[in-house]
Amino acid sequence: KKLLPSKEKLPPGPTGLPIIGNLHQFGRFLHKSLHKISQEYGPVMLLHFGVVPVIIVSSKEGAEEVLKTHDLETCSRPKTVGTGLFTYNFKDVGFAPFGENWREMRKIMVLELFSQKKLKSFRYIREEESELLVKKVSNSANEKPTSSVDLRKVIFSYAASIICRLAFGQNFHECDFVDMERVEELVLESETNLGSLSLADFFPAGWLIDRISGQHSRLNKAFAKLTTFFEHVIDDHLKTGQPQDHSDIISVMLDMINKPNKVGSFQVTDDHLRGVMSDVFLAGVNAGAITMIWTMTELSRHPVVMKKLQEEIRATLGPNKERITEEDLEKVEYLKLVIEETFRLHPPAPLLLPRLTMSDIKIQGYNIPKNTMIQINTYTIGRDPKNYTKPEEFIPERFVDNPIEYKGKHFELLPFGAGRRVCPGMATGIAMVELCLLSLLYFFDWSLPEGMTIKNIDMEETGAFVIAKKVPLELVPNLHRW
Ligand code: HEM
After folding, report:
1. Which among 248, 423, 467 is the best mutation to test ligand 1's pocket, defined by most ligand atoms within 8 Å of the CB?
2. Do 3 and 372 touch, CB atoms closer than 8 A?
3. Does the CB atom of residue 416 touch ligand 1 within 6 A?
4. What are the binding positions for heme in this chain (predicted)?
5. Against a cut of 0.80, is the pTM above it?
6. Per CATH, the architecture of 78-363+393-479 is what?
7. What CA–CA distance (Å, rounded) separates 84 from 77?
8. Distance (Å) of CA 332 to CA 159, 227, 314, 396, 434
């Protein structure tokens, strides 16, 4: 009652139980449970996660109001136990509440990683890593009999190598403190714990149950692994005396930590450095890798689309190319549509990141008080028959001559979010995704492992904020003969 003082014109929602609210109505995946509940209660709902009221928005119009009309009022983030831990007490970008800390960290991140200049100068890293990826897959294709490839491993290793080279200045192919073969385990475990809901988030004495249930210890163990990895990276920078050369974001931030600022101005601390590393490593590797895996999965389930796509790619780029470059990305129109369609059906972060209202606002005519958490369900928006015909089907052609694109201006497709908190890594993420897919589809013909049929392809999901394919995708690569 205290949190929602005005009963006037609140959104509808299912009646909850005392203390636990609506938690008992949720299944394993929040986005799917909320999708189901929204079919009954409509596109703006009020639910209670324990004692915490949460507004769920599941329509294009509602999303536009939250992310565009009320951008300044809704651009803060609520705090949870998991996000506090993995972001070094909200000293990162993704989960920092709106304010100076967020503004300064986002500025540094954009300048050091995502400016036009950086995007251009990091191009050779992305291209080199995609060549290495092709070499790795070729090795399996050259084996006799040809063996299948675990695309999850290969793709995670590709994404992690790019992110770590451009952000941490670290070439993981030559580094002995991280096992690149198992990098996906580190990323997926950290992300799942970061996004997992602790009871302490929803009940006044929930922390006690978290300790008894083991949730507290699980979070801390996963966090310790990630921290150990970061400490190695930082030590490496300190050892080689790099802080002054400003060649990567870690060097730049170490330099800022060592130079105390004038009284009253913003001071970068050790926690800011680790918070940014956490964002870059988890957000940067995970969402991109997951998108590539879902795209290859959907193509394997739709051989007609796969064939059309490969024919278009090979006809456009011509035969016997030695390597794919980012210039080639401009030429392959249908690949972009296939990725858009994958984003629609498998948005990597289906609920985006939660928002917190900073003043009283109205969404679709309902009163939403200050300090209320808002979740936008892009999973439902992507499946809304008002936005898309035959929404459950994978039809990339729906985007032909269609102005909808994914950059945050069209609210029926929001894989990167929109507004002030839109993903700053969008251009890097999309370049990584397109380059990897183009390389895999130009050089190889793909088939399912022996005995497997399209019907057996498992579509089960896993994850918390970011939703991945649970069962690794195994496919057999065959080098394409011209
Ligand atoms: C295909 C790749 C990617 C996808 C689909 C993706 C998706 C997203 C989404 C949905 C959000 C939440 C936006 C919102 O709440 O409105 C987000 C935020 C964010 N992403 Fe990405 N992302 C990708 C790549 C990257 C990369 C490569 C990086 C960094 C290396 C990155 C760093 C971040 C950060 C720091 C935020 C938080 C922004 C803020 O709160 O101000 N992302 N991303």
Report:
1. 423
2. yes
3. yes
4. 423
5. yes
6. Orthogonal Bundle (1.10)
7. 11
8. 21, 40, 9, 13, 10
Residues ≥6 apart with Cβ < 8 Å to 94: 77, 87, 279, 283, 353
* CB-ligand 1 contact for 98 (6 Å cutoff): no
The residues facing 44 across adjacent strands are 57
Neighbours of 420 (CB within 10 A): 16
219 confidence band (pLDDT: 50, 70, 90)? confident
Q: Is 347 in the pocket of ligand 1 (CB under 6 A)?
A: no
Largest distance between two CA atoms of the chain: 70
| Centroid of ligand 1 to alpha carbon of 348 (angstroms) | 10
d(CA 388, CA 412): 9
Cross-strand pairs, 445: 478
Nearest to 57 by CA among 280, 430, 439, 364: 364
The pLDDT tens digits of the residues spanning 308-349 come to 999 999 999 999 999 999 999 999 999 999 999 999 999 999
Q: Is 376 helix (H, G, I), strand (E, B) or coil?
A: strand
> Separation of 442 CA from ligand 1 center, angstroms?
28
Percent of the chain with pLDDT over 70: 97
- Cα separation, 197 vs 215, in Å, equals 9
CA distance 27 to 117: 45
Show the tokens assigned to 383.
């499946």
The answer on whether 175 is annotated among ligand-binding residues is: no
Measured in Å, residue 78 CA sits from the centre of ligand 1 at: 17
Q: Nearest-5° angle of CA 182, CA 184, CA 185?
A: 70
Q: How many residues does this entry show for the chain?
A: 482
DSSP string, 208-220: HHHHHHTHHHHHH
Cβ atoms within 10 Å, residue 260: 9
The interface predicted TM-score (ipTM) is: 0.98
Q: What is the DSSP string of 21-57?
A: BTGGG--S-HHHHHHHHHHHH-SEEEEEETTEEEEEE
Consecutive H or E run containing 280 = helix 270-301
Which residue is listed with tokens 């009940």?
Answer: 203
3-class secondary structure, 255: helix
- Per residue in 238-295, pLDDT (tens digit) is 886 555 556 899 999 999 998 877 777 899 999 999 999 999 999 999 999 999 999 9
Concatenated DSSP letters of 60-119: HHHHHIIIIITTTTS-B----HHHHHHTTTT-SSTTPPTTHHHHHHHHHHIIIIISHHHH
User: For the chain, what are the domain ranges?
Assistant: 1-48, 78-363+393-479
What pairs with residue 21 in β-bridges? 17, 49
The answer to whether residues 403 and 413 touch, using CB atoms and an 8 Å cutoff, is no
Across the strands, what pairs with 367? 362
- Which pair of structure tokens corresponds to residue 424? 């700053």
